[in-house]
Design brief:
By secondary structure, the chain is of the alpha+beta class. It contains five helices and 13 strands. Helix 1 packs across helix 4. Bound molecules: 2-oxoglutaric acid. The site of 2-oxoglutaric acid has 9 residues, from strand 6, strand 12 and strand 13.
């Protein structure tokens, strides 16, 4: 059985934390390169396959797939419901400490997600703030998403794109509902014109807060684009 441990994540020293925190709050996101070991990336893929063998992903309650003439996009929310591995992974002290240090607060893990753009021309992710999805559950806490690339994401693979107009934490922008889009059924009412693509290698983590405007482009390459997102929010009690 695979033993999870902090050692699968690169230790981040204090100068890297200071820089990551400054970027996160100045421009809304930061990237930590080579954060996750290849061994853990393989274990994540195997665990996804194990879940899928036991219960096809499409039968899980957190599964959503959006298919249109442009292609499809699959996501699974709440992986820890189906897997002790994912339950334990999001709670590893090294990850939780990183979330604490970046927010300078105590944090709690609350959502683990798998995103797969499986085929050529997979759908783009509409531009949004994650807060649009959290609003009904909590409004007064900041959340962070750790978006871990499992197999690399170039622009043509549908890499994450961030708005270059930084939005302050707790500045919620109005979103409209996309009825026919089960994965990301909310999008900004006012479009942001200025997005910068953040390519990632397998094992890099992109971290953004819940008010950062982001999206991902349609995919035009042949390989699938796979990512794991681990989400933390500050604890109401702080420190
Ligand atoms: O993987 C994607 O395309 C979207 C991910 C996303 O929006 C998020 O993790 O907040």
């Amino acid at each position: 059985m695979f033993q999870l441990s902090n050692e699968f994540f690169r230790e981040i020293d204090s100068s890297e934390i200071i820089q990551a925190r400054a970027e996160l709050f100045e421009r809304g996101y930061t990237k930590i390169e080579n954060f996750v070991s290849p061994h853990l990336l393989e274990a994540v893929q195997s665990e996804i396959l194990r879940i899928h063998r036991e219960t096809p992903l499409s039968a899980l309650s957190g599964f959503a797939s959006w298919t249109s003439s442009g292609g499809s996009f699959n996501s699974v929310h709440g992986l820890d419901k189906y897997s002790d591995f994912f339950f334990d992974l999001i709670r590893l002290p090294r990850l939780m400490n990183l979330a604490d240090q970046l927010t300078q607060s105590r944090t709690v893990p609350f959502l683990s997600e798998y995103f797969d753009k499986p085929e050529r021309a997979s759908e783009p992710t509409p531009e949004h703030q994650d807060a649009a999805f959290y609003k009904e559950h909590f409004e007064d806490e900041l959340a962070l998403a750790f978006w871990i690339s499992l197999n690399g994401a170039r622009k043509q693979d549908g890499a994450i794109e961030y708005s270059e107009t930084a939005v302050e934490p707790f500045n919620y922008l109005p979103h409209g509902v996309l009825e026919d889009h089960p994965n990301f059924g909310r999008t900004l009412l006012e479009r942001h014109p200025d997005f910068a693509c953040q390519e990632a290698n397998a094992g890099d983590v992109l971290i953004h807060h819940s008010f950062t405007v982001h999206r991902s482009a349609a995919k035009t390459s042949d390989s699938s684009r796979r990512a794991l997102a681990l989400n933390y929010r500050t604890s109401p009690r702080g420190i």
